[in-house]
Amino acid sequence: MTTIDWLQNWYAAQADGEWEHEYGLRIDTLDNPGWSLEIDLKGTSLEAQPFEELRVDRSNSDWIHCRLEDGQFRGWGGPLNLSELVEAFREWADRAPKKG
């Protein structure tokens, strides 16, 4: 399964008729250039899961920074690092204990 397919499936699993009206995820661009990724965790199984801040700095154009902040997974990266940002979220989410 591709990273984008996985993210679509994760989003669809959260969309319960209510969650998606107030929460969701956003992918945007940065002006340095690069990407930002914000994923709301409130009401998900990941809401209370710890996450160790991640910083990978390879060069001025090849980097990612991820952390939890204000109930969100937040990530930023270089212009070719969008899939790596989503993969960092995926790896963390897949390691988290499942509810139920």
Question: Can I get a quick summary?
Answer:
The protein has 100 residues and is an alpha+beta fold. Helix content is 30%, strand content 33%.
What does this structure look like?
There is one protein chain. The chain is of the alpha+beta class and 100 residues long. The chain has one domain. It is built from three helices and five strands, in the order H-H-E-E-E-E-E-H. It has a five-stranded antiparallel beta sheet with strand order 1-2-5-4-3, with helices on one face. The longest helix is centred in the last third of the chain and has 14 residues, at 82-95. The relative contact order is 0.20.
Ranges where pLDDT stays below 50 over 5 or more residues in a row are none
| Radius of gyration, CA atoms, in whole angstroms | 13 Å
In terms of quaternary structure, what is this?
Answer: single chain
**End-to-end distance:** 24 Å
- Total helical segments: 3
Q: For the largest sheet, list the strands in their spatial order.
A: 1-2-5-4-3
Helical amount: 25-40%
Approximate shape: globular
Structural class: alpha+beta
Topology:
Blueprint (H helix, E strand, L loop, with lengths): L2 H12 L4 H4 L2 E6 L3 E7 L13 E6 L2 E8 L2 E6 L4 H14 L5
Antiparallel strand pairs: 1-2, 2-5, 3-4, 4-5
Keywords:
single chain; 100 residues; alpha+beta; five-stranded antiparallel sheet; 3 helices; globular
